[in-house]
Amino acid sequence: MLDKKLLSILVCPVSKGPLEYNRENKELICWESGLAYPIRDDIPVMLESEARPLTEDEKDAHRAKVRAQG
């Protein structure tokens, strides 16, 4: 489980945008940069070289969720 206080101060090292915790995939997602940073042994790995690019399906699903929330 990622500490909420830690999540509130972490930002994407690429875009400096906010991060969203994805518990299921154990990742921190930055929608601005389109990157997902892994969490290994409860430690966020905030290196661009370790991040994976988000898929178009993930981005589309996020946009649909944001639109639905209004």
Distance between the termini: 29 Å
Mean pLDDT, rounded to whole units? 94
Could you please say which CATH topology applies here? N-terminal domain of TfIIb
Q: Name the helicity range.
A: 25-40%
Q: For this entry, what is the oligomeric state of its chains?
A: single chain
The CATH class designation is Mainly Beta
- The residue ranges in which pLDDT falls below 50 over 5 or more consecutive positions are none
Short description:
Helices cover 29% and strands 24% of the residues.
Write the layout of secondary structure elements.
Layout: H1 4-9, E1 20-22, E2 27-30, E3 35-40, E4 43-44, E5 52-53, H2 56-69
Antiparallel strand pairs: 1-2, 2-3, 3-4, 3-5
Your description of this structure?
By secondary structure, this protein is an alpha+beta fold. It has a single domain, classed as Single Sheet (N-terminal domain of TfIIb), CATH 2.20.25.10. It is 29% helix and 24% strand. The protein has 2 helices and 5 strands; from the N terminus they run H-E-E-E-E-E-H. Strands 1, 2, 3, 4 and 5 form a 5-stranded antiparallel sheet that branches. The longest helix is centred in the last third of the chain and has 14 residues. The protein is globular, with a radius of gyration of 12 Å. The N and C termini lie far apart (29 Å). The model has no long low-confidence stretch (mean pLDDT 94).
Quick tags:
single chain, 70 residues, alpha+beta, N-terminal domain of TfIIb, 5-stranded antiparallel β-sheet, 5 strands, 24% strand, globular
